[in-house]
Structures are given as structure tokens and as C-alpha cells.
Design brief:
The protein is mostly helical. The chain has one domain. The protein has 7 helices and 4 strands, in the order ααααββαββαα. Helix 5 packs antiparallel against helix 6.
């Protein structure tokens, strides 16, 4: 099994275990809060199952080194994992508020900032899924550029690398927020600097996709398949707004 396969399998398993541990802790939760948690857990599990289908598609490929599909698949999985970790952080914050009502105002501020970040991360994941499906559909197509036959995906590959690197940077920050104690997952509250680094990574992600979306009209007459690329300016505008909203919130 390729190294990328193993890494993605481990990430999916770790994310499932994290969901299980978050869902176990129902102490101090009202019935309404339990119901919301169960819905979030079910949605997170569906996301992991969808990521599993992405991984299964990749496994039969003879030479994954020749395609950028694993890079896109990896950052889809990383975005799912980050969303789960930040959900766990919010659960800890809300528990703190239950136990010490005097901290309620500070908790609300932090939960709002983290929820805004979760919204950004979800949109990043959605753009990754759109990109993956398009690349999967066209994975065997070859085009001729400067009298040389090249894979169609090579036209956008230089944009995939900085996008992937931006998600990887954010994922490393998220991993610091999670640890195990007596075999169970625990969460650290991100610092203000952690939050700023998350948003910096979001800016890099946005720039990568903005550059890609701006590039496509310059080549679409020569490469007609680019007309079907599913990430559009409306997606860029949405992510721009979400990042702006997240930045306007106080980051303790």
C-alpha cells in the first residue's frame, strides 16, 4: 500500500475515533444539546464515509505518483478532520460555560470565532470535493500543448500544490489541539495566535483557488474541458466573505 494510502487510512480512522470520544461525553448536556450533538456526529460520520469512498477510488490506480488526485484527496480528509477537532474544542468550551457561568461571555466569543473558522473549513472541503470529482472524471485524458502530449490535469497542477500546502499547514495547527489522556481524546483551546495562523492558511487556500479560477478563462478556448471545471467565481466570492467574517471576530 502506498504511503499516501496509509496516511489517509490512518487519518480516517483517527477522525472516526475522535467522533466517538466526543459523542461519549454527554455530561452537563441538556436534551436539546444532546440532540444537536447526535446530529453533528451523524453528519461527521457521513463526511468520513464519503472520504472513504474517495480513498477506495484511489487504491486501484497503478501509479498515484503521476496524478495530483492524492493531494486533493488528502486535503479533503484534512478538512474533515479539522472540522471534527474544532467541534470537539467547542464542546469543551461549552462545558466550561456550564461549569462556570462567569466565563460564559468569554466562551461565547471563542465559540463564535471557532464556528466562523469551521464554516471556512467546510467550504474549503467543498471546493476540494468539486475539484476531485472533475479530476477523477478527466483522469485519463491527454491534451497536446506545444506539440507535446500531457495529462489534462497537468494544466492545473501548479495551483493544486499551494492549495494542498495551505491545508496541510492548518491541519498541523489543528493536530496540536488534540491529545489523548487515559486513552481518551482531549482538546486544547486554540490560542489567539493559533487562530491567526488558521486564517493565514485560509488566505493561502483562497489565493490558490482564486489564481486557478482566474487562469481558466485564459486557456479555455484551447482546452475546452476547462469550461466544465466546477469551481467558479461565486465559490471564490463565498469563501472571501467567510474569511472576512472570521477575521472581523475578536480572536482573544
Amino acid at each position: 500500500m502506498a504511503e499516501a494510502d496509509i496516511e489517509m487510512d490512518n487519518m480516517a480512522k483517527d477522525t472516526e475515533d475522535t467522533i466517538d470520544d466526543i459523542e461519549k461525553d454527554t455530561e452537563d448536556l441538556s436534551e436539546e444539546e444532546r440532540s444537536k450533538m447526535e446530529k453533528k456526529a451523524a453528519k461527521a460520520r457521513r463526511d468520513v464515509q464519503e472520504f472513504s469512498r474517495v480513498r477506495e477510488f484511489l487504491k486501484p490506480l497503478a501509479d498515484m505518483a503521476k496524478t495530483y488526485l492524492p493531494k486533493v484527496a488528502m486535503f479533503i480528509g484534512q478538512n474533515i478532520a479539522m472540522g471534527v477537532i474544532l467541534w470537539g474544542v467547542n464542546k469543551v468550551l461549552n462545558k466550561t460555560s456550564h461549569q462556570d457561568p462567569q466565563k460564559s461571555s468569554d466562551v461565547k466569543k471563542k465559540v463564535a470565532a471557532i464556528n466562523a473558522l469551521i464554516t471556512v473549513i467546510k467550504t474549503q472541503g467543498d471546493l476540494g470535493k468539486k475539484t476531485f470529482e472533475w479530476m477523477k472524471e478527466h483522469k485519463d485524458e491527454v491534451i497536446t500543448l506545444d506539440e507535446t502530449d500531457v495529462p489534462l490535469e497537468s494544466v492545473i497542477s501548479k495551483y493544486i500544490t499551494p492549495i494542498s500546502e495551505s491545508v496541510d499547514a492548518a491541519f498541523k495547527i489543528a493536530q496540536k489541539l488534540k491529545y489523548k489522556l487515559d486513552g481518551e481524546v482531549q482538546f486544547n483551546i486554540p490560542t489567539g495566535e493559533d487562530m491567526r495562523e488558521f486564517l493565514t492558511a485560509g488566505d493561502a487556500f483562497l489565493k490558490g483557488y482564486s489564481d486557478l479560477v482566474a487562469f481558466i478563462p485564459t486557456k479555455v478556448q484551447k482546452i475546452e474541458q476547462l469550461a466544465t471545471f466546477p469551481v467558479k467565481q461565486a465559490d471564490i466570492d463565498l469563501l472571501t466573505t467567510q474569511l472576512k467574517d472570521a477575521k472581523h471576530l475578536p480572536l482573544w
